[in-house]
Design brief:
There is one protein chain. The protein is built from 38 helices and 23 strands. The chain is an alpha/beta fold. The strands form six sheets. The chain has a six-stranded mixed β-sheet with strand order 3-2-1-4-5-6. Strand 19 (838-840) and strand 20 form a beta hairpin. Helix 24 (572-597) packs antiparallel against helix 27. The N and C termini lie far apart (86 Å). Residues 1-19, 305-337 and 405-412 have low confidence and may be disordered. Its EC number is 2.7.7.7.
Length: 952
């Protein structure tokens, strides 16, 4: 008997048939998916390994889940194959392989060998052809097949005995999923693709016909040949003409997309067996790549007698070929998860008390909150999820509404709101355990949750934060969002938020999500948080990051949470006046620019500006980008301005004011919280490579300090009546750290003696006595001092000082000769970065440098400049964190009512009662100066005023 694909269906009742399932892994397809899905990361020698990590995680999970006896990883052998012989342009337009991916191909093949898995590749054929061939052979032998891939080109193979599985989305692909994508069953996919073509692979198809239209045509006419034979009967004139004119092109496309299922076999089918892995060889390979979390999992398996643990993907079913089993009533049953998920909806206090008891018995409780917005100062707490063990979690709904009445309109036919615990009752039931010092509370980005509980009178303590543990371990090597870490360390894709709440205009807030969906999503968040914590926390000791996490990052959570809750008072009227003033000045500048150009145009349009500068005014040849438009970025305009073209300078002026108006004077008014009159910025604790905090929504760290407009914006940040703002910042902390870290004796002496460091530098470099120092010479020394920190070039310094590149290079050379310790330190630091892939702050924080081994000279030079700056900037950030962590206790001990409001890199802003302002300034200065002890003294300076500009 033949099925609709023309191949013999497996005889499921044949007792002699080999019923063991075959898993065919689309290795080539997975390499690219892993490369683009995971952030760039490198092993210690600088070799990129993000795709290798994704691939290794996938193999480990597959072996655990499938318990398969037969697996093969299939690779493309080369870019050209037999299709190029009759259609040379096949895949000709594909972009070049990224440089960061090229070295990973060999490592991925090495990973396959390390897992003791057979691999398949064959010159002249694509991996898809080999998959098609072995799928046919297995089906003829009565063996079910699972193709591990999401590639649409492989969906033509789906049918009785053959299914697909996407490991990155944990999604099974059967006939229904194929129909959903193509609008036809699997056996008609080739016909649809022949018409629609594929721009990525350069399959021509028929112009003007897409997937949807192709599916309609094939459904109506049955197959491609019948359609083309009846093309003259098509009613739509344009479509009819296209099908007649490009009929042969459609037939060629069919040859391109149809997979060859009779390719030569690199290995016999019965050779595709899973062998018992050589665990030590596998561990050695994984350790060489720096994959510590996978090593820990493999070592755990070794302790379990070498067998991979069951993680939930059932073996292929001989009767259906699908990895999903069927229940007695014929409905699909969800495969067991990697950790058995036991999620419970808690809707009364009695049920909640069971979870509180479990938390006390366990001593660890993962906590997560769901809200109707991402602004903790005003968000409504919709629900709380708890987890007490891997896979054991609950969701406690608090403010869910029935979607039918969520718009506020009464609907008497709608069902009543779901049964829920009152928020006050929940807090009463949880307060003791959330504040119990004997129960550790674990969260992910717990700063957000901390604020929500604090608003309800609960101070959560002690805490751990899986996001900050990951940040202490891996810094800027990758992101630290829960979903990303789950993919990275657990090989598990959490339920996406958009799957629960939708996207765009149809997106709903979480309080409108039905409780069954809310339970699956929210309980999983707490569960994954606990599992990540269990995996990552032990690594802190091995990586020697306990001090960074325990003394710098973790204690900062409640400190910054309180800063965000406090917010800073803003004078809306002052901002409004500034906006109006800027609007008037922008109009005046616009008139000047139009007059200089001789015509009106949109200054905000780079395209129009480029045409005016280079086509109309002929100010140079200009440089066009990929879009065909001239580049008009700041560097282009600055160069034109230096050449004396006043229009370029006026455009730069216009851009600066326009940015200030849109980013600050207009936007800040919208960010003022009505209930407090304050702006509540959010500080990201795990977003930078150096450990610095970053400010978002709105960003208050980038307000210009030295321009008059920037000063006016700062003056709109005001103290509450009867209070004063206090600004305390470190004086020249990065230069002090350069002197300390490079052990530059002359600079250390100057700082210890309290000298003007720029004048002292000028005296050393230019040989000018201090009593004969001029402001111009000091200015040059200052530019070099700060420029050296950021790896300034001779060209950059020449532009800054208005001198020739030769003079600038001479200044830098003299500087390096005089401070020879600095040059030695810089070379040693770059050497360390090249060897290890990262640099370290004085407190042990690692700042990763992924481009330090880059073959591109420009990218490598940029990474080398980063390697110099990162330990300096990172150490300054660590010092600031040490100070911030100590200040709340110091203020409390002094009986102060002052509040810390903002951190802007080297500066802290406080609000205190007027009578306490001087005392607060002195106390904070003392704490900041004692935050670290070096041979160079730390100096903090304080200012007091009714507004931020006045205090700074």
């Amino acid at each position: 008997m033949s099925d609709s694909t023309g191949t013999t269906a497996p005889a499921a009742t044949d007792a002699t048939a080999d019923q063991s399932g075959l898993y065919l892994v689309d290795g080539s397809g997975f390499i690219f998916r892993a490369f683009h899905a995971l952030p760039m990361m490198t092993r210690p020698d600088g070799t990129p390994v993000n795709a290798v990590l994704g691939f290794s995680n996938m193999l480990l999970k597959l072996l655990a889940d499938a318990k398969a006896e037969a697996v093969a990883v299939v690779f493309d052998s080369a870019r050209l194959n037999f299709r190029n012989e009759f259609y040379p342009d096949y895949k000709a337009h594909r972009p070049e392989t990224p440089e960061e991916l090229k070295p990973q191909f060999a490592l991925i093949r090495e990973a396959t060998d390390a897992f003791c898995l057979p691999s398949l590749e064959l010159d002249g054929y694509e991996a898809d052809d080999l998959i098609a061939t072995y799928a046919r052979l297995a089906r003829e032998a009565g063996r079910p097949v699972t193709i591990v891939s999401s590639d649409k080109d492989l969906m033509q193979l789906v049918g009785p005995g053959v299914s697909m599985y996407d490991p990155m989305k944990n999604k099974h692909i059967g006939p229904d999923e194929v129909f959903e994508k193509f609008g036809v069953p699997p056996e008609k996919v080739v016909d649809v693709q022949s018409l629609a073509g594929d721009s990525v692979d350069n399959v021509p198809g028929v112009p003007g016909i897409g997937i949807k239209t192709a599916a309609q045509l094939i459904t109506e006419y049955g197959d491609l040949d019948t359609l083309l034979a009846n093309a003259e009967k098509i009613k739509q004139p344009a479509r009819r003409q296209k099908l007649i004119e490009f009929a042969e092109q459609a037939r060629v496309s069919r040859r391109l997309v149809r997979l060859e299922d009779n390719a030569p076999q690199p290995k016999p089918l019965d050779a595709l067996r899973v062998r018992e892995p050589d665990h030590q060889r596998l561990i050695d390979f994984l350790k060489a790549q720096g994959f510590r979390s996978i090593v820990a999992r493999v070592e755990m398996e070794m302790r379990r007698d070498g067998r991979i643990a069951d993680a939930g993907l059932p073996a292929p079913s001989p009767s259906t070929g699908s990895p999903q089993a069927s229940s007695a009533d014929g409905s699909a049953t969800k495969p067991a998860a990697a950790v058995e998920q036991r999620y419970e909806l808690v809707q009364d206090v009695a049920a909640l008390e069971v979870w509180v008891r479990r938390a006390r018995e366990r001593g660890v409780l993962a906590v997560d909150t769901e809200t109707n917005s991402l602004t903790p100062a005003t968000a409504t707490l919709v629900g709380v999820s708890l987890a007490t063990a891997p896979g054991l979690a609950c969701y406690i709904p608090l403010a869910h509404v029935n979607p039918a009445t969520a718009d506020g309109q009464l609907d008497f036919d709608a069902p009543p709101p779901p049964r829920q615990i009152a928020t006050a009752d929940l807090m009463a039931a949880l307060k003791d355990v959330l504040e119990d010092p004997a129960v550790l509370k674990v969260g992910h980005n717990f700063k957000f949750d901390h604020q929500l509980f604090a608003r309800h009178g609960v101070t959560v303590s002690p805490i751990d934060d899986s996001m900050l543990i990951s940040y202490a371990l891996d810094g800027g090597a990758h992101g630290h969002g829960m979903d990303e870490l789950s993919e990275l360390h657990l090989a598990h894709t959490p339920i996406p938020f958009k799957e629960v709440c939708g996207t765009g205009k149809s997106q709903i807030t979480f309080d409108r999500v039905p409780l069954d969906k809310a339970l699956a999503y929210a309980a999983e968040d707490a569960d994954i948080t606990l599992r990540l914590w269990s995996l990552l926390k032990p690594r802190l000791v091995e990586a020697r990051m306990v001090t960074v996490y325990e003394t710098l990052d973790r204690p900062l959570v409640p400190v910054v949470a309180e800063m965000e809750r406090a917010g800073v008072l803003v004078d809306r009227e002052a901002l409004s006046r500034l906006s109006q003033d800027l609007a008037v000045r922008l109009v005046e500048i616009e008139k000047d620019v139009h007059q200089l150009a001789g015509q009106s145009f949109n200054i905000g349009s780079p395209k129009q500006l480029g045409e005016i500068l280079f086509d109309v005014m002929k100010l140079g040849t200009g440089k066009k980008g990929k879009t065909g438009a001239y580049s008009t970025d700041s560097s282009v305009l600055e160069e034109l301005a230096e050449q004396g073209h006043s229009i370029a300078q006026r455009v730069l002026d216009w851009r600066q004011l326009a940015k200030l108006k849109s980013t600050y004077t207009d936007a800040l008014q919208e960010k003022i919280e009505a209930s407090t009159g304050r702006v509540h910025t959010a500080f990201a604790l795990a977003a930078t490579n150096t450990g610095r905090l970053s400010s978002t929504d709105p960003n208050l760290q980038n307000i210009p300090v030295r321009t008059e407009e920037g000063k006016k914006i700062r003056r709109s940040f005001i103290a509450a009546p009867g209070h004063r703002l206090i600004s305390v910042d470190y004086s020249q902390i990065e230069l002090r750290l350069v002197a300390e870290m490079a052990n530059i004796q002359a600079l250390k002496d100057a700082f210890r003696d309290g000298l003007d460091i720029h004048a002292a530098t000028a005296a050393q470099v230019f040989g000018v006595p201090l009593d004969q120092m001029t402001s111009d010479i000091r200015r040059k020394a200052k530019a070099i001092n700060f420029g050296i920190i950021y790896g300034i070039s001779g060209f950059g310094l020449s532009r800054q000082l208005g001198i020739t590149p030769g003079e600038a290079n001479s200044f830098i050379k003299t500087y390096m000769e005089r401070f020879h310790e600095l040059k030695a330190w810089m070379e040693a630091t770059k050497g360390f970065a090249r060897e290890h892939g990262y640099v370290e702050t004085l407190f042990g924080r690692r700042c990763y440098m992924p481009g330090i081994q880059d073959k591109n000279p420009a990218r490598r030079a940029f990474a080398e400049r980063q390697a110099i700056n990162a330990p300096i900037q990172g150490t300054a950030a660590d010092i600031m964190k040490r100070a911030m962590n100590r200040i709340p206790a110091a203020l409390a001990a002094a009986g102060s009512h002052a509040r810390m409001l903002l951190q802007v890199h080297d500066e802290l802003l406080f609000e205190a009662p007027e009578a306490e302002a001087e005392q607060t300034a002195a106390l904070v200065r003392g704490v900041m100066e004692a935050a670290a002890s070096f041979s160079v003294p730390l100096v903090a300076e304080a200012g007091i005023g009714t507004n931020w500009g006045e205090a700074h």
